[in-house]
Amino acid sequence: MRQEVTVGPDIIDYYYECGMDITNPDDFGPFFIQLREDIVMWNSELEDSLYEKIINEYIANESEAMSLFWGDHLPKLNKKEVEDLDEIKLTELTHEDKIEYALVKASKDKIWLKSEENKKRLEIRDHEKRKGKSPKTIKEKKKLYGSLVLPISFNDYSRPNPDEGDNILRLNYMYKHDPNDYFPFNSFIKILLTDTKRIRILEPYIYQTTGVPKSNLEFIFSLVPESTPIQIATMAKEKYGFLKDKVRCSACGWLLKTELFDNHIEGCKKAKFSTPIDVKPSDKIKMVRCSACQETMIEKDEEFNDHVEECPDRVIPTAIKAFDPIKELMNELKSKYDNLTFTILKKHERRIYTDEFIITLGAGLGSYKDGKVVYNDSSFFAEKK
Fold first, then answer.
1. Which stretches does DSSP call E strand in the chain?
2. How many other CB atoms are found less than 10 A from the CB of residue 125?
3. How far out from the chain centre does Cα 51 lie?
4. Cα–Cα distance, 207 to 209 (Å, whole number)
5. Cα(6)–Cα(88) distance, rounded to whole angstroms?
6. How many Cβ atoms are within 10 Å of 137's Cβ, its own excluded?
C-alpha cells in the first residue's frame, strides 16, 4: 500500500495460471487489488518485455483475455516512470531479471515480485555465490553475483508474513503476532500517516513503566508537521489495574504496594541517610563526616544529631499516595508538542484514525518495541475509511 514494487513478465504467467480472472478471490484477485494500492516501478524496457511475453506466448490462444489484461487492467496501475537506469552486469541473471533489477535498485522500498519458480531460481543463485573452497574464490564470486535483493512470490505479496521477511503493508489484512515476532510497525505507520491532515488516537493505556507507548506516540508525532492536530483519547488512572493500591517512592520514583514500602526504604538506591563517618579517631577529639552532605564536624554535645535534622543533602524515601502518572505524562507531552489535545476514552478501543485510514491495534501501542512484538494476542489491521 503506497509501497514501490517491481514486477516483470512472469506476472503474465501468473495471470494465466490463475485462470485469467482478475476477480479470482483465491489468488490473482487479492494480488491485483494489492498491486493497485501500491506504486509499480515502470519504464519502456519493462513495458516492451511484458508486451513481447503476451505476443510471443499467449496472444494466439488467449487473445481476448490477454488483450483485456494489457489494454484495461495494466493501465489502471499506479506507475512510477523511471528511465536511464544503470545497466545491471551481474552474472546468471536473465535479460528480464536485469531490466527488473535496475528498477528495484531505483525504488524506495526494494520490493521485487516474481513467480515462485523464479523466486527459487534466484535464491539458488544467491546461495551459489557463497560456495568456494578459498576466501579468494568466494570474494570473486561475490563480485560476479553481487548482493541481490531477493524477490518475494506473488502469493506471499498478497498474504504477507513480516516475520518471514515479507515487509508488505496490505489493507484489510489481519497481521497476527506472537511475542518476539519481527514486525515493521514504524515503517507501516509511516506509510499510513503520509500526508494526513489530522490524527485521532484511541489508546487506553498511554502510560507504562517501560515507556513503550510514549515512545511510539512520539514517533507518530515526528511523522507529521507541528501544525497537524492530534487528539489522544485515553483512560484515567482509576482504570489502570496495576496502579491499584500502589504508592510512589519520593526518592527513586519506584511504584510498589503500600505494604512493601517499609522494606523498600533501606534498599532505595536514591536514598541518602545522614550517618556519622569517623574521620580522625582520637581519644580526645572525635571528628566525623556526614555520609549525605560530606560536612565534617566534631561529634560533641549532640552536634551531629542536630545536623541530621538540617542536612541539605539528606534524602529519606517517603510514600506518595496522591500521584497520577497519566496526567503527568499528558502534561509532559503537551509541554513538548503544541498540537496535542487529550480526552477521556469511554470505550476500550485501540485505534488510530487518519484522514484516509483506520488502523486497529489489537494490544495497543505498547505492543511494538524496536521492530519486535511484545505482547500475546496482538495484531495489526489497516483499512480505508
1. 4-6, 39-42, 78-81, 111-114, 152-153, 175-176, 199-202, 230-234, 246-249, 255-257, 276-280, 287-290, 296-298, 319-320, 340-344, 351-353, 357-361, 368-369, 372-373, 379-384
2. 17
3. 39
4. 7
5. 15
6. 11
**pLDDT tens-digit profile, the chain (385 residues):** 689 999 999 999 999 999 998 888 888 999 999 999 999 999 999 999 999 999 999 988 888 999 999 999 999 999 999 998 989 988 889 999 999 999 999 999 999 999 999 999 999 988 877 666 566 666 677 777 778 899 999 999 988 989 888 889 999 999 999 999 999 999 999 999 989 999 999 999 999 999 999 999 999 999 999 999 999 999 999 999 999 999 999 999 999 999 999 999 988 988 888 877 777 666 666 777 888 888 887 666 567 777 877 888 888 889 999 999 999 999 999 999 999 999 999 889 999 999 999 999 999 999 999 999 998 889 999 999 9
Whether the full predicted model's pTM is greater than 0.85, yes or no, is no
Strand pairing report for 78-81 and 39-42: parallel
Are the C-beta atoms of 342 and 330 separated by less than 8 Å? yes
Q: Which cell numbers in the block locate residue 100? A: 527488473
